[in-house]
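May I ask you to comment on the folded chain given beneath this request?
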Amino acid sequence: MALAHPARRAILSQLGKGDATVGELAQPFDMSLPAITKHLKVLERARLISRSKNAQWRPCRLENVPLKAASGWIEEQRKIWESRLDRLEDYLHNMEKMEERKNDDNG
């Protein structure tokens, strides 16, 4: 769920370049700071980012371990769906051939 929203994926991409404050993360978006903070809380609950407490600043940091786990799961799902789509393509191709043969026999 944390990766479902494009803003959260963009935030993770931005944090991949280095730590950033909420204000810095909000700059590319047409969103209020409270809206960005809500997205950060979702990412934090998913343990994809952490937020430190340095005086009045709370820089955000990308957490690689959970992101690598999510990436591994996504890759497994991609392979499963590619296999399913390949089987569907083969099935449809065979159906097309059968239809052609049927038309040739009747023609």
The CA atoms of residues 21 and 54 lie 11 Å apart. The longest helix spans residues 64-106. The chain has a mean pLDDT of 89. Strands lie at 49-51, 60-62.
